[in-house]
Write a structure and sequence with these properties.
The protein is an all-alpha fold. It has a single domain, classed as Tetracycline Repressor, domain 2 (Orthogonal Bundle), CATH 1.10.357.10. The longest helix is centred in the first third of the chain and has 25 residues.
Length: 183
């Protein structure tokens, strides 16, 4: 709350004229972030080539995390994650952020059927690994704000490239686009 009072320039009483509680403030911050995340994700899933879409998503997401203001906002997200472990209302807000996971899994399954993803890669497992890489970085960045976002992003992209370029039985390695990290 002290950060919110300082950033807004309002008194604590005035803030509660706009929001019923601290949870409502956190929900508003989360809703705004979820809108941006879902828009980036919809764009990625709309790509004809899911690997290119995932690459674009990872690049844009980590570029977003490189913004100092977004870094500060993410600290609220980390607190919301902790609160969601014992507060049902906060858990509902966190669940909204996880809602697109099923859509990601469907897209990865479709990519695997089109032989754009090795059969050895479980679509739900891959979706959760990518989510964990993002969430894990957000946690690390909360503890160490000066982490090198671009180096981490490029490592995620390199890992993704290695994962999707592995030759699987019945798949042609030549037909699979290469994902390259960029600086």
């Amino acid at each position: 709350m002290q950060d919110i009072v300082r950033e807004s320039g309002l008194s604590p009483g005035a803030i509660y004229g706009y929001f019923e509680s601290k949870v409502a403030i956190v929900e508003a911050v989360a809703a705004e972030r979820h809108q941006v995340e879902h828009a980036m994700l919809r764009e990625a899933l709309a790509c004809a080539d899911l690997v290119s879409g995932m690459t674009t998503f990872v690049k844009r997401y980590f570029d977003w995390l490189d913004d100092p203001q977004e870094r500060r906002r993410r600290r609220v997200g980390v607190q919301a994650w902790a609160e969601s472990l014992h507060d049902a209302r906060m858990r509902a807000s966190v669940d909204i952020g996880l809602a697109p996971l099923a859509e990601i899994v469907r897209s990865l399954r479709a990519a695997r059927r089109r032989k754009k993803l090795p059969f050895s890669v479980d679509p739900e497992g891959l979706a959760r690994v990518l989510l964990a890489l993002i969430q894990g970085f957000i946690l690390q960045q909360a503890w160490q704000p000066d982490l090198d976002v671009i180096a981490y992003r490029d490592t995620v992209l390199a890992a993704l490239a290695a994962l999707v370029s592995v030759e699987a039985p019945g798949h042609s390695h030549r037909s699979r686009p290469q994902v390259r990290p960029t600086r």
